[in-house]
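Entry 14: structure prediction run for Acyl-CoA synthetase. Input pasted below.
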Amino acid sequence: MTEPNTSCAAFQRVAAIDPDAVAVRSIGGEQSLTWREYADQVRAVAGGLSALGVGRGDTVALMMGNRVEFYPLEVGAQHTGATSFSVYNTLAPEQLRYVFSNAGNRVVICEEQYVERVRGCGAAIDTIVCVDGAPEGTLGVTELMASAADDFDFEATWRAVRQDDIVTLCYTSGTTGNPKGVEITHESLLFEARAFASVLPVEFGDRQTSYLPTAHMADRFTALYLQEVFGTQITAVPDRAQLPAALLDARPTIWGAVPRVWEKFKAAIEFSVANEADPTTKAALQWALDTARRKADARLRDEPLDPALAEEWARADAAVLSKLRAKLGLDQVKWAMSGAAPVPPETLGFFFGLGIPISEVWGMSELTCVASVSPPQQARLGTVGKLLPGLEGALTDDGEFLVRGPLLMRGYRKEPEKTSDALDAEGWLHTGDIITVDADGYLKVVDRKKELIINSAGKNMSPANIENAVKAATPLVGSLAVIGDRRPFTTALIVLDAESAAPYAAQHGLPDSSPAALAADPGVIAAIARGVAAGNATLSRVEQVKRFTILPVFWEPGGDEITLTMKLRRKPIAEKYADEIEALYADRPGGSVHEPTEALDPVVS
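Run finished. Output tokens:
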């Protein structure tokens, strides 16, 4: 039997495997679709969109939260031959106008709360399909699905889709300028899915959650596209705050997260152990976590596990660690992964010791998501694994990593000059990442090429490496921006984690959990100072943060300081906080400028 060569053909195959199995569900299962119901709705959506004039080569935009209805709408649009894509729900009208104009879509499928924003954005939109209501001038989903022409030939329509057609657009949340629309073909997508699954296996019925925005390529690939190709069951998580409950409910068998989520899980476990009231239970937890830590230390040093320690870990696992995994809802996970940003090796080590080995992945939208990963049993903590089978890698003289292979994007939509800047004449994608490759082919990401900093003594440094070291040491830190380019020593702007603020204030009896109040609180300052010192202990002296300030604000995704995919906008940060940065380098710092708990000597060459 020939392998499907489009996402439509892949979906039709998996939908027929077990039509009565649940394909998509809400938390708790109150709302769900079997594969039969899912396929029926895909057919109806394709017919309705076809009646609106949507066909092969057109584009359809979706703007909604993580919900069950998303799946048949998105997949139905694919079956017309259209390019279906999602936009971030936080986009302002002028941003929507740019994206819609670049994509060329005349149809938007959205929730009622976004209808007026779509209407007011100024793009040439003919039809708005409303998912959860029917405001005047919009089309309801039921009405859409009932509007197919009598002579609509669903089978012929989806079979006319070609492997080199563009299946989706992924708009990169660039740190400067307008986002670029990455064009991904069916062929690239299916290569990506199969190459990925050859390393981290995916099977029909594997359980996964969808909680990142559906415009984020990580969610599109790990939830939507892996489901279409392999038949996974998705639990939609409409609010990130519901993720812990969703994990306990869904018991995923395959699961991934961005580093911040893993760091929060780690902090929650450590907090619960530290605050355990029963002395006997607390002692057992501390023993188990200490055993886990020693196992992780051996792995981080790439040393074989001592037989006595292995035996002790097995006892700790049976008595305690297995219960901690179950408490997280990750006790049935076959493999876990971390991606979208570098994750501290210490965090990976913590979960390895806990019995949840995490494979760190590396990739980008231009590479259809994941380009490198290794199976958990072969993963080397601190690396992002090896290139997927079928890909080639190369390094330029300045250390930039190049990739060539079937999962490369077609290009940036309507931007030939930017496309040629990224894709050279020999078919290499210039990733913009500085990466080292060891003798066994394992990749280690240093930083973005354009973000490396050189201090006044001429030392090259990776700000991301320094930032990760500090973040790993204290869960109170939400974001931080390291400063040091052409400076005599390294400093940092620190922003508290918005989700941790209220719990911290309640735990410490503080009446005000605002960022301004917490940034000035002596207890918070002391905790951050200890965290910076702990992070510094893992860094070379030239990298260590000598001074820091805690900003009295939270940084929101899509704001001035960080993108929707949580990347720092370093140039706008430097401009916006110029006064705070200069204060960090004043001869006699004071006020809001702080130092690590253990003061460091000034950095010298």
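Notes: The longest helix spans residues 279-300. Will compare against the previous run tomorrow.
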